[in-house]
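Re: [ENG-882] Designed sequences occasionally contain unexpected residues at chain ends

Forwarding the minimal case from QA. Structure tokens:
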């Protein structure tokens, strides 16, 4: 399959979404150019949780990749989530109904510094991918059926299609899609690495603490190898502004004085100062494409509003972007009408999860109801199994996003 250099798609950003786009394109025989303003290894402030969707996409790319990830010393297998309600009652929910911790874990926790570098190594060794590190995008200009990409090194490239994988505040989302931050659909977050945290789950369950000062956000504790943990909090940006919260002060106070967390962190040691970041939430559906461009991952606001799931959604949208491009072949036009097929594919796959995340976020805004659901689930194996199944069953996610589900819980 011949491809003129000027007809190659350009992917902006070499994080998980951009890397997945380029690698799936290469698997389909389509060459691409990947532009990354940083040089790897580089850190990405994040919770570091790699869901089962990450495993699903890696297996689709190459089944050997998941096996390789399992052998990395920085990756810890995760078997489920421990939810802690505002009243302090906890609910331990595995990712699978039955599991064997001696088998392969359905998810992982791995620092983004290491995981993203591991993914980028695949780009470096892929002949059909031209990776340019240390080169950012300065300007984007539509010219008929093409987009002229002005680079920070003073050169330009022409392409029929730009894939924005450079985040919600990236140049593609801003210059081509015209996106602006919407505080109601955005979360402010902090991350801090710790060592010596007491009481980390022996089976790698990640922890989400829905504490009253943070609602509808939460504080997380994600275990890492070697007794370390990724600790942080995320709160919707409009709530931060309305309550005039200082997130660093709030995180320090909770870790020192909270009834459950304080004793666990009393002898622990912070390995860094808290690092801030933003999360564009998928609590509203935004256009993911237009004339000559597609948006993947954070650039398309595809982060789950409840769980904060972002890496898996970035990888999956990258896979779907590559399929959209490859199906059209060399010389294809990527006008706005054609590209809407990509939007449909993404929301068909991720839409029910994002709607569920939005429904769960609204649930958390009513602490009494969230407390009640957790209390009911503690007493009901059937309800616990239902919550577990939502991690794998797309149809069930649709049911859980329906308010009638919670009415049934109330009166069960």
């Amino acid at each position: 399959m011949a491809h003129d250099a000027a007809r190659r798609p350009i992917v902006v950003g070499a994080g998980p979404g951009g890397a997945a786009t380029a690698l799936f394109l290469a698997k389909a025989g389509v060459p691409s150019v990947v532009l990354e303003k940083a040089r790897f290894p580089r850190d990405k402030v994040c919770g570091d949780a790699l869901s089962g969707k990450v495993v699903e996409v890696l297996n689709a790319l190459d089944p050997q990749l998941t096996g390789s990830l399992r052998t990395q010393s920085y990756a810890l297998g995760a078997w489920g989530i421990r939810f802690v309600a505002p009243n302090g009652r906890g609910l331990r929910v595995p990712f699978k109904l039955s599991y064997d911790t001696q088998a392969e874990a359905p998810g992982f926790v791995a620092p983004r510094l290491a995981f993203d570098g591991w993914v980028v190594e695949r780009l470096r060794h892929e002949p059909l991918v031209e990776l340019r590190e240390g080169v950012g995008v300065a300007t984007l200009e539509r010219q008929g059926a093409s987009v002229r990409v002005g680079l920070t090194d003073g050169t330009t490239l022409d392409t029929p299609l730009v894939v924005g994988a450079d985040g919600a505040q990236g140049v593609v989302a801003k210059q081509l899609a015209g996106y602006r931050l919407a505080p109601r659909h955005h979360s402010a977050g902090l991350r801090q690495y710790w060592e010596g945290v007491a009481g980390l789950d022996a089976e790698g369950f990640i922890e989400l603490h829905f504490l009253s000062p943070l609602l509808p956000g939460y504080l997380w504790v994600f275990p890492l190898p070697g007794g370390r943990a990724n600790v942080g909090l995320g709160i919707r940006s409009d709530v931060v502004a309305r309550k005039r919260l200082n997130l660093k002060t709030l995180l320090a106070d909770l870790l020192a004085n909270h009834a459950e967390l304080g004793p666990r962190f009393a002898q622990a040691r912070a390995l860094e100062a808290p690092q801030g970041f933003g999360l564009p939430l998928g609590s509203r559906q935004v256009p993911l494409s237009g004339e000559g461009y597609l948006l993947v991952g954070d650039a398309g606001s595809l982060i789950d509003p409840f769980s904060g799931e972002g890496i898996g959604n970035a990888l999956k949208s990258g896979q779907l972007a590559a399929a959209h491009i490859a199906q059209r072949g060399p010389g294809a036009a990527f006008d706005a009408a054609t590209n809407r097929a990509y939007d449909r594919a993404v929301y068909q796959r991720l839409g029910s999860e994002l709607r569920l995340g939005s429904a769960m976020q609204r649930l958390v805004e009513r602490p009494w109801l969230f407390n009640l659901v957790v209390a009911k689930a503690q007493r009901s194996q059937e309800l616990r199994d239902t919550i577990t199944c939502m991690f794998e069953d797309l149809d069930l996610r649709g049911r859980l996003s329906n308010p009638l589900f919670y009415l049934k819980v109330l009166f069960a």
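QA comment: On inspection the terminal residues look reasonable. Residues 39 and 245 are 34 Å apart (CA to CA). Proposing we downgrade this to a documentation issue.
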